[in-house]
Fold this sequence. Notes:
By secondary structure, the chain is mainly alpha-helical. It starts with a helix and ends with a helix.
Amino acid sequence: MRSLIISLQSEFYKSRKTLAFWAAIVLPLVICGLITIGFFSNAEKVIARNYPPDALWGIFSGTALGIMGMLILPFYVIFMAFSVNNIEHKNDTWKTLFAQPLNKFSIYAAKYLYAVLLILLSLFLFAALTFAFGHLLHLLNSQFKFNEFSPVEMLSKLYLKLFLSSLGILSVQFIISLIWGDFLKPMGIGFIGVIMGIIVASKGWEYAYLIPYSHPTLVLTLNKSKGAHDIFTRDIYSSLIYALVFFIIGYFIVARKSVK
C-alpha cells in the first residue's frame, strides 16, 4: 500500500501541469457555464413553456450529458490515457521508473488509478456544477423553479453509470498507449473506435454492448428505456470486464518494458 501511495503521489507531481489534468477541471466548468448562460439568456422562452421542475432539470442536465457523454468523455479518456503514459515514453524513463525500490505492480496500478481518479474528478464536477448552476439560475430568476425538485439521485446514477462505462475505454486505450508512444496511433485508433461506438449504439445494434467505445452512448440512449435506472446493466458489466481483463494484460506489457 505504501508503494502505491508513493507512486500515486509521483504521478500527480509529474502530470499536475499537463493538459489532461487541467482539462478534468476546466471542461466541466466551461461547458456547464456556457449552458447556464444559454438558459439565462433565453429565460423568457424557457419559462413560457411552463416545464414542471423535474422536466426542467432533465432538459438542463441533459444538455451537458449529451455533449459530454457522447463526445467529450470518450475523447478525454483517450487523450488522458495517452498523456499519462506519454510522460514515460517522451522522457524514455520506463526502465528508470521500474528501477526504483518500489513494487512494480504498485507503480503500474498507480498510473492506472491516477487516470481513473481524473475521470472521476471530471464527472463529479460535471454533476456538482450542474446542480450548483441550476440553483444559481433559480436565484437569478425565481420563475425557473429549480428549487422544487431535487435532481441529486438522477444525476448521481447517470454520472456513476457514465464513470463505469468509461473504464472499458480507459483500459483498452491504456494498453494502446503503452505499446505505441507516438500521438497518432493511440488517438487515431481511439477516434475510429468512438465514431464506430456512437454509430452502433445510436442505431440500436443488438450487440453494441460488446464494443467498449459504445458504452457511454448506450448509457445515454437507454436512459429512458425500461430498466434504465438500474446501474448494473449489460453494457456496464461489459465495460467492467474489459477494464479488468485489459488491466491485467497491461501489467504484463509494462513488466516486460521494465527489463528492456
